[in-house]
Amino acid sequence: MNKTFTRLKYIFLGLFLLSSASVLAYHGLWVWPKQRCEDRGGAWAGKWMKCATVYPIETLTRRPPNTPPINGEAAAAPTTAPAAQPKK
Questions:
Q1: Mean pLDDT of the chain
Q2: Which bin fits 57, alpha (ψ -120 to 50), beta or left (φ > 0)?
Q3: What burial class does residue 47 get, using C-beta atoms within 10 Å of its C-beta: 0-12 exposed, 13-18 middle, 19+ buried?
Q4: Distance between CA atoms of 80 and 78, rounded to whole angstroms?
Q5: pLDDT of 53-75, one tens digit each?
Q6: How far apart are CA 64 and CA 17, in angstroms?
Q7: pTM score > 0.85 for this model?
Q8: Around Cβ 24, how many Cβ atoms within 10 Å?
Q9: pLDDT score for 58
Q10: Residue 50 contacts by C-beta under 8 Å, 6 or more apart in sequence?
Q11: Are 31 and 24 in contact (CB under 8 A)?
């Protein structure tokens, strides 16, 4: 009976240490880097576990803000109101 209690004590101690190490590894590899990234204003890419910098589209295209797109770059917005829906 005494050996059984000793063995169970070691089993539960091992399970506790394993679960504690798992939680620490999860926080060290996922939670804390994500938190640091978002605090700096970045975007966390969880699939690759990387921090990305968010750039406005004006920075990438070197176009002044609120400038309409040039023909062929994007579809033009409709200038007329949509047709009225028939009543059912």
A1: 84
A2: alpha
A3: exposed
A4: 6
A5: 888 888 888 888 777 777 755 55
A6: 57
A7: no
A8: 10
A9: 80
A10: 44
A11: no
Q: CB–CB of 12/21 below 8 Å?
A: no
Q: Is the pLDDT of residue 15 over 60?
A: yes
User: What is the distance between the alpha carbons of residues 75 and 65, in angstroms, rounded to a whole number?
Assistant: 18
Q: 50 pairs with which residues across the strands? A: 45
Q: Which two structure tokens, joined as six digits, stand for 6?
A: 């000793």
CA distance 36 to 28: 11
How many other C-beta atoms can be found within 10 angstroms of the C-beta atom of residue 55? 8
Task: Give 22-67 as a DSSP string.
Answer: HHHHHIIIIIHHHHHHHHTT-EEETTTTEEE----HHHHHTPPTTP
